[in-house]
Amino acid sequence: MKRSGLAILLWAADPDDPVRLATPFAHAAAAAALEMQVEVYFSARSVLLLKPGVAGQLRASERFDKTIADWMDDALAHGARFFVCSDALAAQGLTQDDLIPAGRRHGGAVQYASRAAQAAWTTLVF
Question: Is the predicted pLDDT of residue 1 greater than 80, yes or no?
């Protein structure tokens, strides 16, 4: 069976450790460029990346000019879709209205687990 989708769970992708933040979005962009369906699920503190201005201030390396927002935009431009966990939002004191428009889709553990259970989907956790 050919894999048709990639679901990425951002669990340990914390804005306080930006060196870890470019890779998930690079994988999302690559898979989407290969015409796979790509869903990125923001959980835990990764939901903070969806607040306006946060990802634009972060870089995975000071030797690289591309911001984390640029990496996120690459993934979106190739067709990735972002989903946010409502429990993670509540834990950070946020609502969907506090997020960039691309991050306002609700999707959490049930949706991610559903993708993990589908043979046509591959999952990654960062």
Answer: no
